[in-house]
Amino acid sequence: FDQKENCFDRRSMSSSSPSRTHSWASFDGEGSGAPSPAPMSSGGSGGSSSSLVSSDASLTPFIKDRVIDGKAVAKTIQGEIASEVSRLKDRYGRVPGLAVVIVGARKDSQTYVRMKKKACADVGIASFEKCLPDTVSQEELLKFVRDFNSDKSVHGILVQLPLPKHIDESAVLAEISIEKDVDGFHPLNIGRLCMKGREPLFIPCTPFGCMQLLERNNIKIKGANAVVVGRSNIVGLPAAMLLLKRDASVTIVHSATQDMASIVRRADIVIAAAGKTELIKKEWLKPGCVVIDVGTNGVEDKTKKTGYRLVGDVDFAGAKQVAAAVTPVPGGVGPMTIAMLLQNTLEGGKRDIEGTGSSSSSSS
Question: CA separation (Å) from 69 to 36, 229, 361?
Fold first, then answer.
């Protein structure tokens, strides 16, 4: 709930009493003005959220039979990135570059790094890699990060997590230049994400991908009741902040939450990022809701060559019977994480190559 989310990754205010009037300006921390429309009624377990998803198929191009196709969304985004990289190369003779630092020989980390390298090649982004033994000292690791910080051909730096226990992950992540923090984990990027009127240079890739799955299918976020299951720095907290910035009413539930099911049951949008195998059952879900399942959990399956299969934090078969739309595992959020890493790298490259101030949060 609080740390692990992906094993490969990383009411309207009313006051009838004259003595208790409230300014919407102070409520939202903004200027004066009329109140925004009241959030959509949660309706408990009996209400419907079907208005979140349009019945016009042209507005939901990546939803078929209630399933959100993350692979197709990611492919579309990567095609857009490839076109933009080609334009930069033709005009400036330069392309964005991504450097990945991997420590140790974890097979899952190595697989993920290979996927990132291939994805870079597919869109024309230059890739750099530094593989270090798990015995590397923290100072040696920091030196390689500093080298990439000063390399003009590198516009994004990613240190693959987890790191060995003798290395302070927070110190390593803080060493990455904020201008190259394509993972979006730098304290200044997270801080700006949490502030009204501020935008980070980079948005954490998995939450960014979750939002793209909603937005590219024209799913109504403004005024919706959203519940994020999980509160880690990697997905839960930034996902909640992104939903809040889109004017959703957001609740975070976690390992200490009482009667979690009743809270989730009121949600129009559920982002499940708990790292708990099929935690969320169909009985937890409000009819017509939208479910984004971030979880990636291995369960024993002797029919598979690997001996296991991947499932999410949501009972997919059950959710599909109740939800208006749900992401599968695999093939939902996973491909989006890499696509948004490439998007962040592109934005970092554009800022340097073109001297622009465009941020990833303004891209579609």
Answer: 32, 21, 22
List pLDDT tens digits, range 270-319: 999 999 999 999 999 999 999 999 999 999 999 999 899 999 999 999 99
Contact 241, 210 (CB under 8 A): no
Strand partners, 311: 297
pLDDT one-digit tens code per residue, 252-270:
999 999 999 999 999 999 9
Percent of the chain with pLDDT over 90: 77
Model's pTM, two decimal places? Answer: 0.84
Active site residue 183: yes
Q: Which two tokens stand for residue 237?
A: 């907290």
**Which residue out of 9, 69, 181, 183 is catalytically annotated?**
183
Distance of alpha carbon 161 from alpha carbon 199, whole angstroms? 25
Contacts of 125 (CB under 8 A, 6+ apart): 81, 85, 95, 96, 97, 98, 342, 345, 346, 349
143 is catalytic: no
Which residue in 4, 116, 276, 350 is the catalytic one? 116
